[in-house]
Structure formats: structure tokens, C-alpha cells
Design brief:
InterPro entries: DUF34/NIF3, DUF34/NIF3_sf. The protein is an alpha/beta fold. It is 37% helix and 24% strand. The radius of gyration is 19 Å and the shape is elongated.
Length: 252
């Protein structure tokens, strides 16, 4: 089966409510390739490695969380950017990217998909007054030690996370996939036992330690692998086309 590119993009844009979410990059179709889609390759970031994998797999469209054209970046098409775009255009492959819309979606979003795998029951946004609701708060069905919970995270994500152990049982959890370490203050205010994100800043250690909570940095890439997979699977079901997730390992 094949589907028109325009129809697939329209469905994805609508499903993620992309036009109504302010972001740091354009969401949706970033590079236009051939007019029909038979096979989607998804991945976290539109790196050269992922593009080359899509070429080898004879994919028509690449679906990612981290695409191109970020605010503040050099707009010139030179170097790495030129090589990536040249490969896409030479092989007539489209690039479809969703950043914050894929973080916050209630079904296929990175945050809810990670919670499902870690056994966290979602209660709601960490910041109810924030219209983007990027970070979430929830609870575990039973209290775990920080060591027990970090072992679960390591098993699910396939990598050893960084842990600051607050030395108390973990029941209430706040989290934000990717580079969400800045939400730790809101997590502390919400009364969580543990805050989990992808990355850590130097001051994150002190915030967690001095406020008596545990903190886990589980990897930006590792925590954001699941939303794009879920979105790719949704589009594949909707249009009866092929979808393959390709994980290009990244230790960050």
C-alpha cells in the first residue's frame, strides 16, 4: 500500500495538534520528497546515520523527534546540514519532524510512553498552569527504593542511569524526557520523591540533595525513543503502510 504524502502529513499534524503548540523549530514536513509514502523509517534524531539507514531501506519518509531548523542556529546550508539535506534531496526522501507536540501528546507522547514502560500511573501535568504541560507527575503502585527504581529504569532503557539517591522510598514521581532537568524545582514544589529526566546540569545534583529527593538522569536519547515509535505505528495502522524504527545509539 501507498498513501499520498500530503494526506499522511495532514493526519499527523492534526493528530498531534501541531499548529497550536509553540515550539523552537518548525513541526511537520521539513523536507519534501516523493509524493507517495510506502515505507516510514523513524528515529529520534535526523542524523546522517539515520538518513543513510533510510536510503539503504528504500524508505520514502523519515519520521523524527529532533529535526532541523532550530531557532538561533546558523541558517546557512553548509557542512553537516548541507550533507544531510543533500542526501535527502538526492534520494527524494521526506523528513517529518515533531518536537514538543510529540513530547506532550496524551497517547503517543514521549512522556506518557516512558511512564507506561516504567509502570508510572500518570496523574497530570507537573505545572497545571503551563499550557504546554511538558512535564508530568504520577505515582508507582507500591513504594520502591531509589536503587530498585533505577534498576527498573536501567532494564527498560538498556543503559545505566545517573542516580542521586535521596534515601527515602519512591512513590510519587515527576518526569520530563530529554533535556528537562530545569523542571526539578517544579518537581520539588509538587512534593515528588523522585524526579527523572534525560540530562543533568551541575546544579541539579545540589537541588536534589539539598531538597531531599532522588534524581535520575537516564539519557536524552534513551528517554525519547518511544514517542516516535508510537506515532510511526499509529500512521502505519491508519494507512496500512510499513513502519520500521531505527535506533542510532547515542550515549547522551
Amino acid at each position: 500500500m501507498t498513501i499520498e504524502l500530503s494526506a499522511l502529513v495532514k493526519r499527523a499534524d492534526h493528530y498531534l495538534n501541531a499548529a497550536k503548540i509553540a515550539d523552537y523549530c518548525p513541526n511537520g514536513l521539513q523536507v519534501e520528497g516523493r509524493g507517495h509514502v510506502r515505507k516510514i523509517i523513524s528515529g529520534v534524531t535526523a542524523s546522517q546515520e539515520l538518513i543513510d539507514a533510510a536510503v539503504a531501506a528504500e524508505a520514502d519518509l523519515i519520521l523524527v523527534h529532533h529535526g532541523y531548523f532550530w531557532k538561533g542556529e546558523n541558517p546557512c546550508v553548509v557542512g553537516m546540514k548541507q550533507r544531510r539535506l543533500k542526501t535527502l534531496l538526492r534520494h527524494d526522501i521526506s523528513l517529518l519532524a515533531y518536537h514538543l507536540p510529540l513530547d506532550v501528546h496524551p497517547l503517543v507522547g514521549n512522556n506518557v510512553q516512558l511512564a507506561e514502560r516504567l509502570g508510572i500511573a500518570v496523574e497530570g501535568p507537573l505545572e497545571p498552569e503551563n499550557s504546554r504541560n511538558v512535564a508530568l507527575v504520577g505515582s508507582l503502585p507500591e513504594a520502591l527504593s531509589a536503587a530498585e527504581f533505577v534498576a527498573r529504569v536501567a532494564s527498560v532503557l538498556g543503559r545505566e542511569p545517573l542516580l542521586v539517591d535521596g534515601q527515602k522510598p519512591i512513590r510519587r514521581v515527576g518526569w520530563c524526557t530529554g533535556g528537562g532537568q530545569g523542571y526539578i524545582d517544579q518537581a520539588i514544589a509538587a512534593g515528588v520523591d523522585l524526579y527523572l529526566t534525560g540530562e543533568a546540569s551541575e546544579q541539579t545534583f545540589h537541588s536534589a540533595r539539598e531538597n531531599g529527593i532522588s534524581f535520575i538522569a537516564a539519557g536524552h536519547h534513551a528517554t525519547e525513543r518511544y514517542g516516535v515509535q508510537a506515532l510511526g505505528d499509529y500512521l502505519a495502522r491508519e494507512f496500512n503502510i510499513e513502519h520500521v524504527f531505527t535506533d542510532c545509539p547515542n550515549p547522551i
